[in-house]
What does this fold into?
Amino acid sequence: LAAFPAIGAAILTGAVDLMVVDVQCVMPGVNDIAKCFHTELLTTSPKAKMPGVKHLEFEESKAHSLAHEIVRRAIDAYTRRRQERGRAEPGEPRRARGRRRERARRRGAS
It folds into this structure.
C-alpha cells in the first residue's frame, strides 16, 4: 500500500482477512487495528517482528513454500470471516467525494 494511513484504512473496510507486513509497511498500532477487525497479521522480516503477531521468516530458498503457507492462512482466515463484514460489491468501486466538491456543488459551481 502507498502510505501508512492506507494500511489502517484497508483493514477498516473489513474485507482484509490477512495482511503480510514487512519492513516497509510496519506501522505502530496496526496490530491493535487488526485485532478489532479480526484481521490476521504476519511478518516475514526479523526487523518487522511485533508482539502478538505471527512471524514466518522469509528465506529465498523456501519462498515457494512460504507463499503457499501464507495463502493457506489467508483462506483459513476468510472462512472464519463474519458474514456482516467486508462485503465487496462486484462492478465499479464507488468513489468518495471530498467535502470541497460537495460544497461547491451546493453553491452552484461545477
